[in-house]
Description:
The protein has 143 residues and is mostly beta strands. It has one helix and eleven strands.
Amino acid sequence: MAVNPLGYQNITDGGAPRIITGYANEVISGGQLVGAYSLTGVISSGAASFATSDIVLNHSAGSGNFVGVALHDAASGAPLSFATRGAFILEVSGTAVAAGALVGCNDGDEVIIGSAAAALNNIIGRTWTAGSTGGYAIVDIHG
């Protein structure tokens, strides 16, 4: 699993924090890319039916279910806060990415060039800086 060894590194929050809490469905480390998982029918039409435990988070695995970046370590079944927007330092995999490029994520918590991710409907954001394989880029995410 590739992840920034310094954990969650927030560059900016876009002017307003976009952080929400759910529950980890597996062990998740801060800085990992997370995806949503849910059974159907967990909430009704009213906000009163919503509970934090309705949001279940897994390792994103590049599956198109990306919703954000984990802000801290969490054990399976524990609460986990994640950011749905913001700029983060993320590791690059595969082809180098240019500044301003659309990127997706793979199953190693790394960003990949957008053309590879677009086929999977897995675009997670746009780079602010260029990055090469094994290096890092600043990515403005949108969960």
